Amino acid sequence: MGAFKFVSMFFLFTPSLSLILCSFFCRADMNKNCSQQCSKSDSFSGESDFKANLKSLLESLAENGPVHNGFYSTSKGESSTQIFGLVQCRGDISANNCGSCIKNSSVFALSECPESRDVVIWFRWCFLRYSTDNFLGILDQTSVAVLNDTNYDDPSLVSDGQSLMSGLASSVPYQSLMFQIAVLEGGVRGKRYGMAQCTRDISGSDCGLCLNAQLDAFRTTIGSKKDWEVYGFNCFMWYHDHQFYFNFSDPTSGSGRTIWSCFGVLMMVLMIL
Ligand SMILES: *[C@@H]1O[C@H](CO)[C@@H](O)[C@H](O)[C@H]1NC(C)=O
Ligand SMILES: *[C@@H]1O[C@H](CO)[C@@H](O)[C@H](O)[C@H]1NC(C)=O
Ligand SMILES: *[C@@H]1O[C@H](CO)[C@@H](O)[C@H](O)[C@H]1NC(C)=O
Ligand SMILES: *[C@@H]1O[C@H](CO)[C@@H](O)[C@H](O)[C@H]1NC(C)=O
After folding, report:
1. Are the C-beta atoms of 101 and 93 separated by less than 8 Å?
2. What is the pTM of this model?
3. 202 with 245: CB under 8 angstroms?
4. Using CA atoms, how far apart are residues 163 and 171, in angstroms rounded to an integer?
5. Which of 1, 12, 118, 152 would be a feasible disulfide site paired with 217, CB 3.0-4.6 Å?
């Protein structure tokens, strides 16, 4: 589980927002700010109302996200100063870490994008988005892929790894939290760990569209790599050669299935066929 560097980022679909990227060094098992997008800074009328609404929005998200299994969306204010927001913590993250991650990404948003009305902040453990436009429930396919360009996997595991992730794209929409983990047993070549998630404001069918679009769009860049992550506005995928997530059990299901095995996912695919 050593240090892990992400060196390249690829954007899917030219986003309408102006782009600020940080070059970064991620330890795969730690939280980290990964990327952000801020709309152009502009001064606008009703700015002080907007700032007051934003403050109350961010407080509400940080308070409610952790107690709603990591997802919360709401809006504050009215008409031209109304602001919509959502948070989505990664499904394996504890409520404490979720709350702390939301607070930290709020602080980050206010320091990096102080004059912006459309803001997206990706941390490894949580996702924060707010805007004066109501984006809630509307699928947006903007995504960024993060990977080390030369970190190729064992060629004999590449197609199994791709199947693992396609399996997740098919089954995540049917999970109560739209979050799932899958493990590929590679024998002497080691295990591969996949995880995928959608924000819970979108429908299951949009979740499936979102994940499959990421796999299609980035296939040539991520397809042969052993460590990569894709961050979108509505869905996310992670793939690593070490267990980068916390042990997870679905709080909405009664008994303790800890990790979905590759077998579970394959069964799912076979059942659909
Ligand atoms: C965000 O990440 C960048 C690059 O890794 C780092 O320099 C910066 O200090 C981080 N900021 C915060 C608030 O965590
Ligand atoms: C939030 O920031 C504080 C102070 O930098 C840090 O100690 C804490 O670990 C961060 N929380 C998360 C979840 O990243
Ligand atoms: C990318 O991966 C290669 C192969 O594993 C490694 O040698 C190199 O140090 C990595 N680059 C960075 C910047 O992490
Ligand atoms: C997850 O649980 C297993 C078995 O209980 C343990 O060996 C492992 O260290 C745990 N991993 C994490 C990241 O907590």
Report:
1. yes
2. 0.83
3. no
4. 12
5. 12
154, 56 Cβ separation under 8 angstroms: no
Residue 246 Cβ < 6 Å to ligand 4: yes
| pLDDT tens by residue, 84-137 | 999 999 999 999 999 999 999 999 999 999 889 999 999 999 999 999 999 999
Q: Which of 147, 151, 241 to mutate to test the pocket of ligand 3 (most atoms within 8 A of CB)?
A: 151
Helices (H) and strands (E) in the chain, counts: 5, 14
Q: Which of 26, 27, 31, 33 has most ligand 1 atoms within 8 Å of CB, for mutation? A: 33
Please give the class, per CATH, of domain 31-131. alpha beta
**76 close to 82: Cβ distance less than 8 angstroms:** yes
Do the two domains 31-131 and 143-272 of this chain adopt the same fold? Answer: yes
> What tokens does 86 get?
């959502």
Please say whether the beta carbons of 214 and 232 come within 8 A.
yes
Distances (CA, A) of 248 to 194, 209, 266: 13, 25, 20
Statement: 143-272 belongs to CATH 3.40.710.10 = no
| Alpha-carbon span 74 to 87, nearest angstrom | 9
